[in-house]
């Protein structure tokens, strides 16, 4: 279980970092979401992985650490709020800056050229 | 009542912000302004009372909901956090006052957001629980995101987008660090962590080290330490000046958290982990000063220059954190108060100058004269002398203290060299900026131009006058800074207070 769990977290982080480095707002938002999922799973594991144990005393033989569950709950709530904010900001950025690059500047001139060519072709 | 005083700097801004969203002042800007400034003043008074109380009776620990530590969350008001809370509340009051001149009309909810920001910063200074530190960080960050967008344009959107994404990544790293530390230490109460860290064995030591260094990354990001400082000049110079002035305290939250974590948890008694961040911090701090000084020299407008001055002050503070002696921490505390007030004053002054110079705005070139040269010029002179660190004002006291406390340290000679050269660079560029703006004039200023609103003048004067006051009352202030530094380094009393009989 440990191996599955940790590789799951690792994979999520890797995907998240990759998407954030894409530097386009939509992939970045997706990447941030994945990163926060990975972080939530990781926090959950910091209380040790146990099977069939309640977080309340007296309901099972042992008990699972309740604190990480509380922490994850808080982190999820905060993560949702922040993701919502960054989505709105990304939409506004798209409207204000005319493209979805986080620097607000189209770096790849090749795509712009091909785009304008396509437009010209469309006109023709 | 008195034992609840510790929670007031957190509760009052929250109540103020919520009240301002409610019907009586929901749409009414006038009522909102009155409530904002009034509640800001009340928060400041409460913080000052807290400050005086901690000076009289020492550290007070407030267990929220009477749940005792390490299971409950505690607020700790020791001399250092009480001082910083007072500073934040005062800054919030001044910025609220300044914005009454019309800045708060340029978007909705300026005043509630300002109070939420004060709530977050005060909470981060007061809390004694690492996870709660994260929560208060998020509170202050989300308020700062919205304030950054307040009355903004295109450049602003871009800077805000980068700032938000960077901080979200920072928050994830913060949570990972907390997860690792909780997994190895089994607690998130900072005092309890300080005790548990001495008992670590085997691989747990390395895990805790990873956690501690990840925390360093987060605090370096918030504090704008070298490799992670690039967001700051852009963000601060595109935000509205009154917001930027308010943000002057936010980099200090990162520095404060470094002070707390690396002297309390990973301090002297942490066995293998003691002083683990020190070597890193030294070089990063020195490099930050260099980059900040280059930025100051290269700035083309006043706001960018002040933003780079903030970077320099962060570098200085972090270098002092790395020294980790009582003297250096005391110097850092004095310098922290001074630099926050002065950079806030300079941001506001840059705004006033920009408004009165028409199209040239705050660019450092010849332009139309300002319409109130004596008032603005005088205030700018005082603030500039303070920020450079020239003799009569508080910057000089801070500078001498900083240099003395770093004299015998391992990298002290490097620090002296870099710091003094950086001061020279700041002297050159700030005096050039001042003389260009006030003396190189083209065309005539006409007296019909916009003159500064009384609220703005009042706010700027409040900030500028703090500098001479910090020199006149240098005696009691430095005593208080020393007391705070001693409490910071000698925390056995704190452990007793927080944990009581629990072990």
Automatic annotation (TrEMBL), chain A:
<comment type="similarity">
    <text>Belongs to the CPA3 antiporters (TC 2.A.63) subunit C family.</text>
</comment>
<keyword id="KW-1133">Transmembrane helix</keyword>
<keyword id="KW-1003">Cell membrane</keyword>
<keyword id="KW-0472">Membrane</keyword>
<keyword id="KW-0812">Transmembrane</keyword>
<dbReference type="InterPro" id="IPR050601">
    <property type="entry name" value="CPA3_antiporter_subunitC"/>
</dbReference>
<dbReference type="Pfam" id="PF00420">
    <property type="entry name" value="Oxidored_q2"/>
</dbReference>
<dbReference type="GO" id="GO:0005886">
    <property type="term" value="C:plasma membrane"/>
</dbReference>
<protein>
    <submittedName>
        <fullName>Na+/H+ antiporter subunit C</fullName>
    </submittedName>
</protein>
<dbReference type="InterPro" id="IPR039428">
    <property type="entry name" value="NUOK/Mnh_C1-like"/>
</dbReference>
Automatic annotation (TrEMBL), chain B:
<dbReference type="GO" id="GO:0008137">
    <property type="term" value="F:NADH dehydrogenase (ubiquinone) activity"/>
</dbReference>
<dbReference type="Pfam" id="PF00361">
    <property type="entry name" value="Proton_antipo_M"/>
</dbReference>
<keyword id="KW-0812">Transmembrane</keyword>
<feature type="domain" description="NADH:quinone oxidoreductase/Mrp antiporter transmembrane">
    <location>
        <begin position="129"/>
        <end position="421"/>
    </location>
</feature>
<feature type="transmembrane region" description="Helical">
    <location>
        <begin position="305"/>
        <end position="326"/>
    </location>
</feature>
<dbReference type="InterPro" id="IPR050586">
    <property type="entry name" value="CPA3_Na-H_Antiporter_D"/>
</dbReference>
<dbReference type="GO" id="GO:0042773">
    <property type="term" value="P:ATP synthesis coupled electron transport"/>
</dbReference>
<feature type="transmembrane region" description="Helical">
    <location>
        <begin position="109"/>
        <end position="125"/>
    </location>
</feature>
<keyword id="KW-1133">Transmembrane helix</keyword>
<feature type="transmembrane region" description="Helical">
    <location>
        <begin position="455"/>
        <end position="474"/>
    </location>
</feature>
<feature type="transmembrane region" description="Helical">
    <location>
        <begin position="205"/>
        <end position="226"/>
    </location>
</feature>
<dbReference type="InterPro" id="IPR001750">
    <property type="entry name" value="ND/Mrp_TM"/>
</dbReference>
<feature type="transmembrane region" description="Helical">
    <location>
        <begin position="279"/>
        <end position="298"/>
    </location>
</feature>
<keyword id="KW-1003">Cell membrane</keyword>
<keyword id="KW-0472">Membrane</keyword>
<feature type="transmembrane region" description="Helical">
    <location>
        <begin position="414"/>
        <end position="434"/>
    </location>
</feature>
<feature type="transmembrane region" description="Helical">
    <location>
        <begin position="34"/>
        <end position="53"/>
    </location>
</feature>
<feature type="transmembrane region" description="Helical">
    <location>
        <begin position="374"/>
        <end position="394"/>
    </location>
</feature>
<feature type="transmembrane region" description="Helical">
    <location>
        <begin position="332"/>
        <end position="353"/>
    </location>
</feature>
<feature type="transmembrane region" description="Helical">
    <location>
        <begin position="131"/>
        <end position="148"/>
    </location>
</feature>
<protein>
    <submittedName>
        <fullName>Multicomponent K+:H+ antiporter subunit D</fullName>
    </submittedName>
</protein>
<feature type="transmembrane region" description="Helical">
    <location>
        <begin position="160"/>
        <end position="185"/>
    </location>
</feature>
